[in-house]
């Protein structure tokens, strides 16, 4: 895919990051904090440095702020930020206290630093957040101004041991089935309208909820150590940004929070996300790059991303790509992460009409427990629902073998060259589910060294060139491995408990060249519902 970042952006990145790394990159300074992330990295990526700020600071209290949880501090924040920016940069210090405020706009060379005991709470009065032109879910749109935002800024940071609360309860709709009776009664006692099991906050602005932290066209961004919670919508949304570090954050939303994503990295490059905990109402860490024709025309992929040592608790997906991925996503590493009670572990989602290419994704050393659906999911029939909602509704999206196969166009999404290694999961609903398109199969997906216990085994549909190696799947019900319309599958050392009535099931009319090597799968426990059983070869069985 054509890269449209341009020479100027590349020059700025080179000046900021100094050197590149990958298989054969240069040598970085010994003191570089994130050097360990670049060891054995499978792609070239500049070393992203933290922004450095001048030794100048303004205490928010000295700018007229009052941290008593009652006084409004919107003007104090603006004055302190303007002062530091005008002096060429430095730090706005938020001391201990409860700082009640309207929107905060960051400017270049400003570090918003929250000291221990500092809590920023945003006023729930929706009228304080004007309607602006921005982007959401991959499209240009009008939304309310975000509680924290920056546009076109360079060298900015939010740091410190304090916390930020977005007063999301004033913005978010609520579905009755998502919460307990006590929670429903509390929320519906607030100003708003309840109808047909759904509550909407009062006022039209609640329908155009903002993301909590909106960073657009920014360079050299640091988000470190802060707790961010209770977002109106997505929590952190860097868009068109370059050189971003997210380190040691805690990101929290209620598990029923509509669109309550933790981090959505969209059309960005050179991003590090490490040591961060997410407990949210939608996807945990999500990669995006625009939606449909607008995203394809934008043609700004998300690329060069490292995610390491993160923990995701409640979320629709632990690490996610899509569904708005029309500009593409490539060169992404995910490692040493834990997904504890998420709906899905690794979630790749898209649909016809999106287009875009997702490639060169490397995920390894992932530990998971108590997943509502799959440890690994590729869903090319995304319906706008979470995987758990699809399961609860009894929906099984996909084409019938008798349906005409659509032509491949620029609207056809492509997922290819994805490498997943060392995955350990206890107690999923289904081990793996690859659900590709007949006109554009999921291609060259590689899973190596995985041990997964689940209610149901692994299922591969409309796939080409999938390689599974050293896999153990322990299902409670049904076959350990199901294949429908798979081509050029190389399955080595795929084992399951002995004694399964059916260990392998193959069906469909578009199967070809399937090789299965296993100590526990054999002709006696394999069900081959295909016209030509020779398309399936059982080796070393």
Q: Can you describe what's shown?
A:
- The strands form 4 sheets. This protein has a 35-stranded parallel β-sheet that branches.
- The protein is mainly beta and 541 residues long.
- The protein is 9% helix and 46% strand.
- The relative contact order is 0.07.
- It contains 5 helices and 42 strands.
- The radius of gyration is 24 Å and the shape is elongated.
- Mean pLDDT is 93; it is low at 1-25.
- It starts with 5 loop residues before the first helix and ends with a strand.
Keywords:
541 residues; 5 helices; single chain; disordered N terminus; mainly beta; 35-stranded parallel sheet
Itemize the secondary structure elements and their pairings.
Layout: H1 6-17, E1 20-21, E2 45-46, E3 57-59, E4 68-72, H2 74-86, E5 90-94, E6 97-101, E7 104-105, E8 110-114, E9 118-122, E10 131-136, E11 139-144, E12 148-151, E13 154-160, E14 163-165, E15 174-175, H3 181-188, E16 192-195, E17 198-201, E18 213-216, E19 219-224, E20 227-229, E21 236-239, E22 242-247, E23 250-252, E24 263-266, E25 269-274, E26 277-279, E27 285-288, H4 292-298, E28 302-308, E29 311-312, E30 317-321, E31 329-340, E32 344-349, E33 357-369, E34 374-379, H5 387-392, E35 414-435, E36 442-464, E37 467-475, E38 481-495, E39 504-507, E40 512-517, E41 526-529, E42 536-539
Parallel strand pairs: 3-5, 4-6, 5-8, 6-9, 7-12, 8-13, 9-14, 12-18, 13-19, 14-20, 18-21, 19-22, 20-23, 21-24, 22-25, 23-26, 24-27, 25-28, 26-29, 27-30, 28-31, 29-31, 30-32, 31-33, 32-34, 33-35, 34-35, 35-36, 36-37, 36-38, 37-38, 38-39, 38-40, 39-41, 40-42
Antiparallel strand pairs: 1-2, 10-11, 15-17, 16-17
